[in-house]
Amino acid sequence: MPGLPFDVLAEPQRRRILDLLREEERPVGELVALLAASQPAVSKHLRVLREAGLVEVRTDAQRRLYRLRAEPLREVGEWLEPYRRLWERRLDDLERHLGTIPG
Amino acid sequence: MPGLPFDVLAEPQRRRILDLLREEERPVGELVALLAASQPAVSKHLRVLREAGLVEVRTDAQRRLYRLRAEPLREVGEWLEPYRRLWERRLDDLERHLGTIPG
DNA sequence: CAGTCATATAACCAACAGGGCATACTGAGT
DNA sequence: ACTCAGTATGCCCTGTTGGTTATATGACTG
Predict the structure, then answer these.
(1) Do B70 and A76 touch (CB under 8 A)?
(2) What's the pLDDT tens digit per position in A3-16?
(3) Is the separation of the CB atoms in B61 and B29 below 8 Å?
(4) What is the predicted pLDDT for the residue at B2?
(5) Each residue of A86-96: b (16+ CB within 10 Å) or e?
(6) Is B39 (CB) below 7 Å from strand C?
(7) Is the pLDDT of residue B98 over 80?
(8) Which residue, of A33, A40, B19, B76, is most buried by count of CB atoms within 10 Å of its CB?
């Protein structure tokens, strides 16, 4: 499933979920509260994230604890890599340019 | 328009366009040929990219030369940053783990 | 200015995504 | 077994997206 992580990240709410799980493992209900979203909506996003391998579930009694799996994001990072130089170079240019002003 | 670049990158064809423009400035027709896509489809993607600030156009007679603007990708890179450590750490763990086997 | 090349836009369409509500499932406690 | 908490799923509805074909625009050419 190449490209999948890009699709998944297109959804703002899903990025927020990942951000929350980056801090720590959380049950669905907590995500629902923190995101101020409906429970089914969150469950649906979690399903998508799970199918993309971006989260793992662990069962704890009635609750399901979701944990981040960052590895699929590597693909995004690798795609982005060659661009990084470009936007950094552009920053350098700006800095150099600004440097010429106060002189 | 925060989050916009994420949406834009969700489309594989658009990522390919950016990859092509990363090499050099190109007219629409060239992109059409290289992507084996229809001209209107490509123009549409270019519009989306333009509105997201990811490309710039320059007119050269009848042709429009498109050039990459990587700067908006910075937002993606910054979002991704905290995750990078995680997937790299995970790789370290794996290596360390493998290291314990042969010993 | 008629014709043509390169590109953009319009109109339309099929597919899909994300939200809501209602409901099914699962494990614990009684 | 009944019930409740926590979560997943099904179904419906709506907005959006990406593609297609046909047409408009704009610039050069004879």
Answers:
(1) no
(2) 799 999 999 999 99
(3) no
(4) 74
(5) bbeeeeeeeee
(6) yes
(7) no
(8) B76
CB-CB contact of A28 with A43 (8 Å): yes
Q: At what angle do helices B39-51 and B12-23 cross, to 10 degrees?
A: 80
Residues 39-78 of A with CB under 7 A from strand C: 40-41, 44-45, 48, 59, 61-62
Is the CB of B64 within 7 Å of strand D? Answer: no
Judge whether residue A39 has pLDDT over 70. Answer: yes
Query: Is A16 near strand C, with its CB below 7 A from some atom of it?
Result: no
Amino acid letter, A27 = P
Q: Give the best residue of A83, A84, A85 to mutate against chain B (max B CB count within 10 A).
A: A83
Q: What amino acid occupies position B71?
A: E
Rounded to whole angstroms, the Cα distance separating B66 from B41 reads 15
